[in-house]
UniProtKB/TrEMBL annotation:
It catalyses: GTP + H2O = 7,8-dihydroneopterin 3'-triphosphate + formate + H(+). Keywords: GTP-binding, Hydrolase, Metal-binding, Nucleotide-binding, One-carbon metabolism, Zinc. Belongs to the GTP cyclohydrolase I family. PROSITE patterns: GTP_CYCLOHYDROL_1_1 (PS00859), GTP_CYCLOHYDROL_1_2 (PS00860). Zn(2+) binds at C115, H118, C186. Pathway: Cofactor biosynthesis; 7,8-dihydroneopterin triphosphate biosynthesis; 7,8-dihydroneopterin triphosphate from GTP: step 1/1. One of its GO terms (cellular component) is cytoplasm. This is GTP cyclohydrolase 1.
Protein backbone atom coordinates (compact mmCIF):
# COMPACT_ATOMS: atom_id res chain seq x y z
CA UNK A 1 0.00 0.00 0.00
CA UNK A 2 1.28 3.44 -0.80
CA UNK A 3 1.00 5.90 2.00
CA UNK A 4 -0.30 9.34 1.01
CA UNK A 5 2.49 11.83 0.79
CA UNK A 6 2.45 14.52 3.42
CA UNK A 7 2.20 18.02 2.06
CA UNK A 8 5.68 19.48 2.34
CA UNK A 9 5.97 22.43 4.67
CA UNK A 10 6.16 25.66 2.69
CA UNK A 11 9.24 26.54 4.72
CA UNK A 12 11.25 23.80 3.04
CA UNK A 13 10.53 25.21 -0.39
CA UNK A 14 10.37 28.86 0.42
CA UNK A 15 13.14 29.61 -2.02
CA UNK A 16 15.70 32.13 -0.91
CA UNK A 17 14.85 32.39 2.82
CA UNK A 18 17.81 31.87 5.13
CA UNK A 19 17.73 29.24 7.89
CA UNK A 20 17.49 32.08 10.45
CA UNK A 21 14.47 33.57 8.70
CA UNK A 22 12.78 30.19 8.55
CA UNK A 23 13.45 29.62 12.24
CA UNK A 24 12.14 33.08 13.18
CA UNK A 25 8.99 32.48 11.12
CA UNK A 26 8.44 29.14 12.83
CA UNK A 27 8.97 30.67 16.29
CA UNK A 28 6.48 33.43 15.48
CA UNK A 29 3.88 30.88 14.36
CA UNK A 30 4.40 28.89 17.57
CA UNK A 31 4.15 32.06 19.66
CA UNK A 32 0.93 33.08 17.89
CA UNK A 33 -0.46 29.59 18.47
CA UNK A 34 0.40 29.81 22.18
CA UNK A 35 -1.13 33.29 22.42
CA UNK A 36 -4.41 32.17 20.85
CA UNK A 37 -4.56 29.19 23.25
CA UNK A 38 -4.00 31.60 26.16
CA UNK A 39 -6.75 33.88 24.84
CA UNK A 40 -9.26 31.07 24.52
CA UNK A 41 -8.38 29.80 28.03
CA UNK A 42 -8.89 33.32 29.37
CA UNK A 43 -12.23 33.61 27.60
CA UNK A 44 -13.42 30.29 29.05
CA UNK A 45 -12.37 31.39 32.55
CA UNK A 46 -14.05 34.76 32.08
CA UNK A 47 -17.33 33.06 31.13
CA UNK A 48 -17.03 30.71 34.11
CA UNK A 49 -16.49 33.62 36.50
CA UNK A 50 -19.53 35.40 35.05
CA UNK A 51 -21.59 32.27 35.83
CA UNK A 52 -20.14 32.11 39.36
CA UNK A 53 -20.91 35.75 40.07
CA UNK A 54 -24.49 35.36 38.82
CA UNK A 55 -24.64 32.14 40.83
CA UNK A 56 -24.19 34.01 44.12
CA UNK A 57 -27.10 36.26 43.17
CA UNK A 58 -25.06 39.27 42.06
CA UNK A 59 -25.84 41.63 39.20
CA UNK A 60 -23.13 41.33 36.56
CA UNK A 61 -24.04 44.71 35.09
CA UNK A 62 -23.39 46.52 38.38
CA UNK A 63 -20.52 48.98 37.67
CA UNK A 64 -18.20 47.44 40.26
CA UNK A 65 -18.60 43.98 38.72
CA UNK A 66 -18.55 44.72 35.00
CA UNK A 67 -14.84 43.96 34.60
CA UNK A 68 -14.63 41.40 37.40
CA UNK A 69 -14.93 38.25 35.25
CA UNK A 70 -11.93 39.18 33.10
CA UNK A 71 -9.96 40.45 36.10
CA UNK A 72 -10.63 37.26 38.01
CA UNK A 73 -9.77 35.17 34.93
CA UNK A 74 -6.40 36.91 34.67
CA UNK A 75 -5.80 36.47 38.39
CA UNK A 76 -6.54 32.73 38.23
CA UNK A 77 -4.31 32.38 35.17
CA UNK A 78 -1.48 33.96 37.13
CA UNK A 79 -2.14 31.80 40.18
CA UNK A 80 -1.96 28.64 38.04
CA UNK A 81 0.79 29.66 35.66
CA UNK A 82 2.98 26.83 36.94
CA UNK A 83 1.16 24.40 34.64
CA UNK A 84 2.78 26.08 31.64
CA UNK A 85 6.32 25.86 33.07
CA UNK A 86 8.88 23.08 33.03
CA UNK A 87 11.93 22.40 35.17
CA UNK A 88 14.14 23.27 32.19
CA UNK A 89 12.34 26.63 31.81
CA UNK A 90 12.78 27.66 35.40
CA UNK A 91 16.34 26.46 35.97
CA UNK A 92 17.49 27.98 32.66
CA UNK A 93 20.69 25.93 32.64
CA UNK A 94 22.02 27.52 35.84
CA UNK A 95 23.84 24.39 37.04
CA UNK A 96 27.47 24.97 37.97
CA UNK A 97 30.33 22.53 38.64
CA UNK A 98 31.48 22.56 42.27
CA UNK A 99 33.73 20.50 44.52
CA UNK A 100 31.84 21.61 47.61
CA UNK A 101 30.02 18.57 48.91
CA UNK A 102 28.61 20.20 52.05
CA UNK A 103 24.92 20.83 52.56
CA UNK A 104 23.40 23.82 50.77
CA UNK A 105 20.31 25.27 52.42
CA UNK A 106 17.93 27.97 51.20
CA UNK A 107 15.50 28.91 53.97
CA UNK A 108 12.36 31.01 54.22
CA UNK A 109 11.21 31.00 50.58
CA UNK A 110 7.68 32.36 50.80
CA UNK A 111 5.02 30.80 48.62
CA UNK A 112 1.34 31.11 47.75
CA UNK A 113 -0.57 28.13 46.47
CA UNK A 114 -4.19 27.04 46.00
CA UNK A 115 -5.73 24.08 47.78
CA UNK A 116 -7.12 21.65 45.24
CA UNK A 117 -10.07 20.76 47.46
CA UNK A 118 -11.59 24.21 48.01
CA UNK A 119 -9.69 26.43 45.55
CA UNK A 120 -8.68 28.63 48.46
CA UNK A 121 -5.14 29.84 49.09
CA UNK A 122 -2.61 28.28 51.39
CA UNK A 123 0.65 30.08 51.98
CA UNK A 124 3.79 30.02 54.02
CA UNK A 125 7.50 29.32 53.84
CA UNK A 126 9.63 26.64 52.21
CA UNK A 127 13.07 25.49 53.35
CA UNK A 128 15.18 23.49 50.91
CA UNK A 129 18.48 21.66 51.46
CA UNK A 130 20.57 19.41 49.26
CA UNK A 131 23.85 17.52 49.41
CA UNK A 132 25.69 18.38 46.17
CA UNK A 133 27.46 15.80 44.09
CA UNK A 134 29.80 17.73 41.78
CA UNK A 135 27.33 20.43 40.77
CA UNK A 136 25.23 23.15 42.35
CA UNK A 137 22.08 24.94 41.27
CA UNK A 138 21.71 28.71 40.93
CA UNK A 139 20.27 29.83 44.28
CA UNK A 140 17.33 31.78 42.84
CA UNK A 141 16.29 28.67 40.94
CA UNK A 142 15.26 27.04 44.21
CA UNK A 143 12.64 29.77 44.65
CA UNK A 144 11.61 29.45 40.99
CA UNK A 145 11.09 25.70 41.44
CA UNK A 146 8.98 26.35 44.56
CA UNK A 147 6.82 28.85 42.63
CA UNK A 148 6.43 26.62 39.58
CA UNK A 149 4.78 23.90 41.69
CA UNK A 150 3.02 26.28 44.09
CA UNK A 151 1.30 28.02 41.17
CA UNK A 152 -0.88 24.98 40.54
CA UNK A 153 -3.80 23.39 42.36
CA UNK A 154 -2.12 21.49 45.16
CA UNK A 155 -2.14 19.78 48.49
CA UNK A 156 0.76 20.72 50.71
CA UNK A 157 2.26 17.23 51.02
CA UNK A 158 2.41 16.72 47.24
CA UNK A 159 3.78 20.20 46.68
CA UNK A 160 6.59 19.47 49.14
CA UNK A 161 7.43 16.18 47.45
CA UNK A 162 7.37 17.67 43.93
CA UNK A 163 9.78 20.43 44.93
CA UNK A 164 12.18 17.89 46.48
CA UNK A 165 12.07 15.67 43.39
CA UNK A 166 12.64 18.64 41.06
CA UNK A 167 15.70 19.79 43.03
CA UNK A 168 16.98 16.22 42.89
CA UNK A 169 16.37 16.02 39.11
CA UNK A 170 18.05 19.38 38.53
CA UNK A 171 21.13 18.78 40.69
CA UNK A 172 21.69 15.00 40.75
CA UNK A 173 22.39 15.56 44.45
CA UNK A 174 23.13 12.83 47.03
CA UNK A 175 20.02 13.91 48.88
CA UNK A 176 17.34 16.60 49.03
CA UNK A 177 15.19 17.72 51.95
CA UNK A 178 12.25 20.12 51.88
CA UNK A 179 10.13 21.47 54.73
CA UNK A 180 7.06 23.64 54.22
CA UNK A 181 5.17 25.54 56.93
CA UNK A 182 1.79 26.80 55.81
CA UNK A 183 -1.57 28.18 56.80
CA UNK A 184 -4.64 27.09 54.86
CA UNK A 185 -7.44 29.55 54.19
CA UNK A 186 -9.86 26.63 53.89
CA UNK A 187 -9.23 25.96 57.60
CA UNK A 188 -9.36 29.65 58.55
CA UNK A 189 -12.08 31.39 56.55
CA UNK A 190 -14.53 28.50 56.54
CA UNK A 191 -14.91 24.92 57.81
CA UNK A 192 -13.21 24.50 61.19
CA UNK A 193 -12.20 28.21 61.24
CA UNK A 194 -8.97 27.72 63.18
CA UNK A 195 -6.83 30.84 62.95
CA UNK A 196 -3.72 29.71 64.82
CA UNK A 197 -3.02 26.25 63.44
CA UNK A 198 -0.26 25.70 60.92
CA UNK A 199 0.88 22.65 58.97
CA UNK A 200 4.43 21.41 58.52
CA UNK A 201 5.14 18.94 55.69
CA UNK A 202 8.46 17.24 55.06
CA UNK A 203 9.95 15.47 52.03
CA UNK A 204 13.32 13.70 52.17
CA UNK A 205 15.04 12.01 49.24
CA UNK A 206 18.28 10.00 48.95
CA UNK A 207 20.88 10.36 51.71
CA UNK A 208 18.51 12.40 53.91
CA UNK A 209 16.39 9.26 54.39
CA UNK A 210 19.29 7.27 55.90
CA UNK A 211 21.77 9.84 57.25
CA UNK A 212 20.38 11.00 60.59
CA UNK A 213 23.19 13.53 61.03
CA UNK A 214 22.33 15.33 57.77
CA UNK A 215 18.63 15.12 58.52
CA UNK A 216 19.05 16.58 62.02
CA UNK A 217 21.47 19.28 60.83
CA UNK A 218 18.81 20.47 58.39
CA UNK A 219 15.85 20.21 60.78
CA UNK A 220 17.75 21.98 63.60
CA UNK A 221 18.75 24.85 61.29
CA UNK A 222 15.14 25.66 60.45
CA UNK A 223 13.57 28.77 61.90
CA UNK A 224 10.45 28.23 64.01
CA UNK A 225 7.28 28.43 61.97
CA UNK A 226 6.24 32.09 61.73
CA UNK A 227 2.61 31.21 62.36
N1 LIG B 1 -3.73 16.58 53.64
C1 LIG B 1 -4.15 17.75 53.19
N2 LIG B 1 -5.43 18.09 53.36
C2 LIG B 1 -5.82 19.29 52.91
C3 LIG B 1 -4.96 20.21 52.30
N3 LIG B 1 -5.68 21.31 51.99
C4 LIG B 1 -6.93 21.07 52.42
N4 LIG B 1 -7.03 19.84 52.98
C5 LIG B 1 -8.13 19.13 53.61
O1 LIG B 1 -8.96 18.50 52.67
C6 LIG B 1 -10.05 17.99 53.41
C7 LIG B 1 -11.28 17.90 52.56
O2 LIG B 1 -12.21 17.26 53.36
P1 LIG B 1 -13.78 17.04 52.97
O3 LIG B 1 -14.47 16.47 54.16
O4 LIG B 1 -13.83 16.30 51.68
O5 LIG B 1 -14.25 18.51 52.65
P2 LIG B 1 -14.96 19.55 53.64
O6 LIG B 1 -16.31 19.05 54.02
O7 LIG B 1 -14.93 20.89 52.97
O8 LIG B 1 -13.99 19.53 54.90
P3 LIG B 1 -13.78 20.59 56.05
O9 LIG B 1 -12.64 21.49 55.64
O10 LIG B 1 -13.43 19.74 57.25
O11 LIG B 1 -15.04 21.37 56.22
C8 LIG B 1 -10.17 18.90 54.62
O12 LIG B 1 -9.86 18.14 55.76
C9 LIG B 1 -9.10 19.97 54.39
O13 LIG B 1 -8.53 20.47 55.59
C10 LIG B 1 -3.61 19.83 52.15
O14 LIG B 1 -2.77 20.55 51.62
N5 LIG B 1 -3.25 18.60 52.60
ZN1 LIG C 1 -8.77 23.49 51.17
Amino acid sequence: MTLPLRQPSVHLYAGNQTAEELLAEQELAEQQGAESTQESTLLALQQSYATLISGVGEDLTRPGLVDTPIRAAKALSFLTKGYAQTLEDVTNGAIFPSNNHEMVMVKGIEFFSMCEHHLLPFMGHTHVAYLPEGKVLGLSKMARIVDMYARRLQIQENLTQEIAQAVMDATGARGVAVVMDAQHMCMMMRGVQKQDSSTRSVAMIGQFTTDNQARNEFLRALPASRF
